[in-house]
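Regression check, flavin-adenine dinucleotide case 867:
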Amino acid sequence: MQMPDPNQAIIARKAHLVARLKQVLPEGAVIHSDNEVRAYECDALTAYKCPPLAAVLPATTAQVAAVLRICHEEAVPVVPRGSGTSLAGGALPTADAVILGVARLTEVIETDYDNRFIRVQTGRTNLSVTGAVEQDGFFYAPDPSSQLACAIAGNIAMNSGGAHCLKYGVTTNNLLGVTMVTMEGEIVEIGGAHMDSGGYDLLGLICGSEGQLGVVTEATLRIIAKPEGARPILLAFDANEVAGACVSDIIRAGLLPVAIEFMDRPCIAACERFAQAGYPDCEALLIVEVEGSDAEIDEQLAKIKAIAATHDPVEMRESKSEAESAAIWAGRKAAFGAMGQINDYMCLDGTIPVSELPFVLRRIRELSAEFGLDVANVFHAGDGNMHPLILFDANKPGDLNTCEALGAEILKLCVEVGGCLTGEHGVGIEKRDLMHVQFDAADLEMQVRVKDVFDPGWLLNPAKVFPLDATEARRAARDVPQRQTQDAAIA
Amino acid sequence: MNDVTDTVLTPDTEQQLAEMVRAAHAQRTRLAIRGGGTRPYGNPVRADAVLQTSGLSGITLYDPGALTLVARAGTPLAEVEAALAAEGQMLPFEPMDHQGILGTTGTPTIGGVVATNASGPRRLKVGACRDSLIGVRFVTGEGHVVKNGGRVMKNVTGYDLVKLMAGSHGTLGVLSEVSFKVLPKPQSVATLVWSGLDDGAAVALLAAAMRSPYDVSGAAHDPASGRTLVRIEGLEQSVSYRAQALSQDLSSRGAAQIIEDDSAAIWADIRDARPLCDGQGDIWRICVKPSDGPRVVAAAGGHPALYDWQGGLVWLRMPQGTVLRDRIAEYPGHATLMRGTDKRAFQPEPMPVARLSQGLRTQFDPRGILNSGKMI
Ligand SMILES: Cc1cc2nc3c(=O)[nH]c(=O)nc-3n(C[C@H](O)[C@H](O)[C@H](O)COP(=O)(O)OP(=O)(O)OC[C@H]3O[C@@H](n4cnc5c(N)ncnc54)[C@H](O)[C@@H]3O)c2cc1C
Ligand SMILES: Cc1cc2nc3c(=O)[nH]c(=O)nc-3n(C[C@H](O)[C@H](O)[C@H](O)COP(=O)(O)OP(=O)(O)OC[C@H]3O[C@@H](n4cnc5c(N)ncnc54)[C@H](O)[C@@H]3O)c2cc1C
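Current build output:
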């Protein structure tokens, strides 16, 4: 993975920059010693590390604006950071960049149950947003598995999803407004407690822009009244194809479960060893969860059982209680941890059309044999978001390279069958160089031009998302600091 | 209202469309993009030629088991809805039909739905058109063919230009193809009706309904008929259970009549703002925080109004030429003139946002040849 060479002139000006940042931030909010900046050298994609020039932890939107104004004047790249749980290297710094962390922005600003929204500062963790409203019967729907740690800031930047997005949508469908600071230090209010934007949908553009368009400091989020209850059913099959066909039939029957999770044999086996979930011995299993009152849940589960029965299941295990529900979910929730116990692994995130599931699983098995690395599959089957886990040995020379090559082949396969490179983790640096597989030059050019509008100097998280050669000229131009007055250019 | 031109361009393929726009860009020919001609709101377009999308027609992919449909932009909306209905599915966001309030006739196209981000009552629960839109292909003002998103529900690969195109009224590109996430049609529907509530009490009741766990999919109030409406959809037993439970929970606010048989017509009227269509005057569509709805109507002078989205969508009919935005300025949101002659059909945006929007327009259509003057 290549990163641009750091600008030595910026590194040489470190002391000057740190002094300026200290003028606008409280005591202790500028981190610059070699030892301390190491805490910011990577995110959850730990294969790539680089300590930043400095890290700042502002506590207000005004301080964020002040920091950005300075960095803009000094032409210093800035990498925004939430909790650093990105699996795509989105928060990976370069040696000439300042990390701008929002970890100190954690307040709840407003809660409004009549209008069903909460306004928070974006350093707040995903789970603690629900935590702030659940005593009153509400929840915030997007639920990435990392929800205990990840921040709303990162969720917005990556447009994160979760197990329950089949019914409730992903972050962008639950975001009503943001306060954002541009790289030039200007504070912009977009959206709010009302539904729908007036002019262009800037909110939709900012969500998923991976920290490249602005630093988001506050967000208005949709909260939803909790359903009366939820219960899963476990369905076991003796072939991946059959499980895939069952998913499709459930959807076609007009049922809309909140979650349909899929695990294949290698994954089931690992979870069994790790969590002793008591899963049946089978090739593929589905966990299907539905919501409502007890009677409504029974009605839906009865229909799902009837559909599954036409596919000769090895076993159907319907939860009748909270304890049984927990037992069904135990293995699934432990899946990543279980894999981590037995191996190093790389987690992919491509999405495919659900109807291509059997073919894609078969191809993955063939590729796995060809590259000599095992692949376990655990994923959100209802929406086709796959998470193939490639198992490798980090201590074995060449294994990481083989793993990355296999990963690239699997992602290309996802695109070939009509899907995409990433369903919820984002491009970051990890999939940056594969973007041309999904997009041609004109597609990428229009995306790059969007960044030109928001960050004409290409200072904000500049080496991410797009293949480096597609942005090289723009990144090179920034080294001549100039305040581009866009208003004049437009008039 | 529009400059009239006789030149009509009708591309049959995306490639032809790109060639025509490229030529128009080279010659600085301004194009008025026309789908079905049923939603001519927004500022008057200055155009030298009409670009008609009707030749770009047909459903290109429909995978009911994956809940996805892809269609060329000029496909009649009715064709899309019929194909979905045959499989027991639907567009989730209930696109409105503008022909009632605008007095137009024509064949609404799926591209026109996307370009206007048209959404109806279910928007409250499942989001707007932009939330169901998962992919677009379009031709920029320079004639480049661009794709974004795709045919899968979860996709965060690169920037989300899909949402940007929704509601851009043909000013950032000409859509050639659009993809949607669709939903199963509910097996059963019940509508709860309360009568005689004033606007404030009605909107408070709707808020209480939305706070319940009963998964409400429509919340409207029609002051003219004095009816407050709540819709519940889903499996049959579940619908009647939830309707009963909700009516009981809200009984202190008044007794509800429960309509268990077909209430589609009631919701189509709300969706299309039928109660306001007749009669003279300007028609405004206002988006605010739901609880602000009644305050907005009072500030506007209490003119004939209709509330959807729990009060968050207010339709108003006002005497022609009323300067409405000044009266309701204290309520955050935006007001669009749907019918009338004000020079600014869309709410003017405050400065940093306006600059970013203008910047995008310049990047996507540098010579401003697409629907010139419509939005900004
Ligand atoms: C064990 C594990 C499980 C996971 N499960 C899921 C899952 O189920 N679903 C899912 O979608 N993801 C999942 N993830 C990925 C990750 O948690 C998400 O991408 C998350 O949203 C990142 O949030 P963060 O606060 O940690 O962001 P960071 O890692 O700090 O940053 C992520 C990106 O956001 C940008 N950013 C951060 N703050 C701001 C800001 N204030 N303004 C603008 N841009 C900003 C950064 O520059 C970077 O590009 C998982 C990760 C782990 C480690
Ligand atoms: C012979 C003739 C000449 C005309 N001359 C003019 C004229 O000179 N100037 C003028 O302003 N109007 C003119 N019109 C009317 C004009 O076509 C419409 O008022 C206007 O362009 C709106 O389109 P619509 O309502 O037909 O599209 P609808 O389908 O109702 O679409 C609504 C909105 O979406 C846009 N849109 C529709 N499809 C797409 C798509 N595929 N991609 C992107 N955007 C889309 C439309 O431009 C419109 O803004 C003329 C009409 C005719 C029949």
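Comparison notes: The pocket of flavin-adenine dinucleotide (ligand 2) is lined by residues B 2-5, 8, 32-40, 42, 44-45, 47, 50, 53, 73, 108-109, 111-112, 115-116, 169-170, 174-175, 371, 374 (CB under 6 Å). Chain A has five domains: 8-101, 108-225, 230-336, 343-434, 440-490. No diff flagged against the previous build.
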